[in-house]
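Objective 1b: paired records.
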Amino acid sequence: MTFTNDLGQPQTINVPENWFLGIIIGAGPNALNAHLKHGDGFAEVTFSPALHLASTGQNHQASNVECFAERATTTQPPEPGN
């Protein structure tokens, strides 16, 4: 994925298979269990301040990205909807 940083310079983040850009959730047991069941994993890299990445044709049109993580599982249950 290529994006433009705050200085107007293009940069690239390579997201390997089974990795994702995400947000950091609270560490409560219910939230942690829910995210792990969904396939989310533990953050390997964090971004502070968060990256603000706009996307086209995706679910999240303007997302703050706080972490880079590897999926805990590679198969996910169907989405229940938002």
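Objective 1b, second protein:
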Amino acid sequence: MFNRENIAQAQADFAEKRYCHIDNILEERYIQALYKEVPNMPYGVWGCIRNSHNKYPAGFQNSEKFAGLQAHIEKAEESLVTFTMLIGY
């Protein structure tokens, strides 16, 4: 499962950069299996405005409920809104 040849490089990259390439951690067949499953993984969206944080399910942006929030979102954009995709929602 693990790419033993490059694991030392992954450890060095993470120690320096706080991230590493998946190629240096997993064997190719496991990487391809992950890529195949990503579209099926549940994920969500966090909407944050000042100290208000709301979690929304995948696809929420296409719902009628989201359309009703458009005016609120536009007003909030004036005070910086951050949306982040989360895997494993």
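Residues 28 and 73 are 41 Å apart (CA to CA). The two ends are 25 Å apart (CA to CA).
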